[in-house]
User: What shape does this take?
Amino acid sequence: QVQLVESGGGLVQAGGSLRLSCAASGRTFSSYSMGWFRQAPGKERESVAAISWTGGSAYYAESVKGRFTISRDNAKNTVYLQMNSLKPEDTAVYYCAANRGPPVLVSRSYDYWGQGTQVTVSS
Assistant: This one.
């Protein structure tokens, strides 16, 4: 009953930047922790970042620390992922997810998922 729609994906060169957005509807957005996950072809889904209800706490996978920033604007029911210094290994489908619990970097803890947006980083 929570709908999540990602946008902002595309094709960029290595070293470039993208900003992903995830618009939520159907529930009180501020009641959920939010996360970003990604899945490359032939690989399992992996955690990227997570943020608490209020945005006061954020967590990142080691592979993206210092390059990616997760944020949220509860007034706009939107969570963002700013991706800088992109690398070819960042190429994947990126998913937004909502979690009624804490902002853990564990995909099975999330209850609602968006459809994904493709990010391709060329070398």
Remarks:
- The longest strand covers residues 18-25.
- The chain has no helices and eleven strands.
- Residues 17 and 99 are 27 Å apart (CA to CA).
- The radius of gyration is 13 Å.
